[in-house]
Amino acid sequence: MSAQSSDGAIPGVNTGVDKFELNNRAAKAHFRYIGILHHPMKPESTELANEIASFLRAHGLEEIWLESAWEGEAVLEHLPNVDLLITLGGDGTLLRAARLGARYGVPMLGVKMGRLGFLAEIMPDNWQQPLVSMLEGRYWEEERLMVRARLERPASPGGHLVTVGEYDALNDVVLSRGGLARIVRISMKLDGSYLTTYTCDGLIVSTATGSTGYALAVDGPILPPELRNILVLPVAAHLSMDRAIVLAEGTEIRLRAYSDHEAMLTVDGQYVIEVSAGDEVVVTGSPHLARFIRLRDRNYFYQALMEKLRWPEPKEF
């Protein structure tokens, strides 16, 4: 077998094209079918989606489709054949796209049109050159852990538990009290062994991605985005364990809520499922990873964190 150089060319053979052209061809060959998801409540995102589609077609990419990020069923019809999802919106739009696309291994590129934009990579006033860089092959893929929550319910009063729903999340799942401002007691088992019972407003089970979201608001630790660990921490704990726990990816977390009223399970802050007495919530690492196209350096995260949270910039030493 002939040896190949780092750009894929065989030494001693004149290919007639330079490295730029080879990378450009490789990227275009990889991204053959592209979906652009816009935010239905932001008219400017629809306009920008059309501009990006025209730009990509002008660069030789013909198979492009546009859809609202909220039309999950319509998006799912395309996903088995999609090579890339470009999202226009805030982090919520990327969370929706991740839950849909992760099962097919589809990478995502976010255009920031929300407020914080921890997950987005491109700004809406400077997107042409970043897209060119991507088409030239100058990008890397970042993989992030997701969690899967399984809701189990007794088949009959006092009977065995059966699964009634499964939900993947990129940020977090939260088991909490319902509409009334009353505490809920939540027991937790790790890999079948009882650990503790929390008395709190709710319990957050978060990924590293979610550590800069709701978990951060309750003083949780910040985890590097590619770390494959699961974070558990209570909201407003009362006379019970109030510290965060960092668990291994393969840990099974079994939760049960005790309350005079129905509790609720929230997925990525976007979906709410009622939890009845006797139900149990089982959380594990999802078999699917969320994949992001990154154009910045691999050490981008901490500097971006300082900028997004507007913390004082430390002096150099």
Descriptive terms for the model:
317 residues, alpha+beta, Tumour Suppressor Smad4, 2 domains, ten-stranded mixed sheet, six-stranded antiparallel sheet, 7 helices, 21% helix, disordered N terminus
pLDDT under 50 segments (min length 5)? 1-23
Q: Helical stretch count? A: 7
CATH class of the largest domain: Mainly Beta
Roughly what is the average pLDDT, rounded to an integer?
89
**Rough shape?**
globular
Compressed to H and E, one letter per element, the order equals HEHEHEHEHEEEEEEHEEEEEEH
* CATH evolutionary superfamily of the largest domain: Probable inorganic polyphosphate/atp-NAD kinase, domain 2
- Major β-sheet annotation: 10 strands, mixed
Count of discrete structural domains:
2
Beta-strand percent range: 35-45%
The amount of helix comes to 10-25%
The overall strand count is: 16
Provide a concise account of the structure shown.
The chain is α+β, with helices and mostly antiparallel strands and 317 residues long. Helix content is 21%, strand content 37%. The protein is built from seven helices and 16 strands.
